[in-house]
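Would you mind writing out the residues of a protein together with its fold in token form for me to study?
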Amino acid sequence: MQNGTAIEIKALKKIYENGFKALNGVNLEIRRGEIFALLGPNGAGKTTLINAVCGIVRPSSGTVAIGGYDNISQYRKARSLVGLVPQELSTDSFETVWNTVTFSRGLFGKANNPRHIEDVLKRLSLWDKKDEQIRHLSGGMKRRVMVAKALSHEPEILFLDEPTAGVDVELRKSMWAQVRSLRETGITIILTTHYIEEAQEMADRVGIINKGELILTEDKKTLMQKMGKRQMIFVLREQLTTIPSELGSYPLTLEKDDNGGKLILTYDAETENDISDVLDNLKSHGIRPKDIYSHQSSLEEIFIELVEVK
């Protein structure tokens, strides 16, 4: 791949016959070797975008280059670089794991390579299941087989469309670890997910799509710093009716409850605040918190805020 770019998407549109705009001028560059998480509500265009890149859906206009190859005029070369794990579990239930993965490699015209298939199955903790029929596997194991199929022809880019859908929390975390290990081999990974914590845990960069438009792409850490809010919560011993006017210079809000209530100091993640100064001012007004703890916005909170604004 050239210039560190795995995928380059320019002005991509998909408009269906009924006039529905599934994609509306998407521009996106995926860097080689990164984990890129594509987030968005149901119907936002996540799967349509992946299918357009992989050549399953033909766009109305715009271009996609995969490793420098146009995905329409140079389809075979472009598609050979890509492994796709779709949402649906589509495998032959009566076939063995080994035969299923080996057959997928053959579909790309690749010569038989038992050593590579063995390596893939071991990396995905499927080696001890290699002779079992797919129908005897759990849902989590079946999803791993889908990943193995996508890796069978040694792609440089791996698309994971909702990779842990229907998988329990323990297996989900195991899948996260396996995805990270795949990235360490040099594979570029693009995932769509409904699990915001999945993106927060794994992604290097995050893209947010809504109503067919990519409304933001940002390094995850930068996004958290830019948009993440930090809060210092002071749990009160006694209920306050109002915040003293002398404390008006601080961004404080009062949250009342059946106990003493809370004073909440909210500030940008990049803002420096001297908490000891705040405590001194509270104390001077007879406010002595019985507990203090902090909270920082999660990626989920940032995502909800962005989508609601859009």
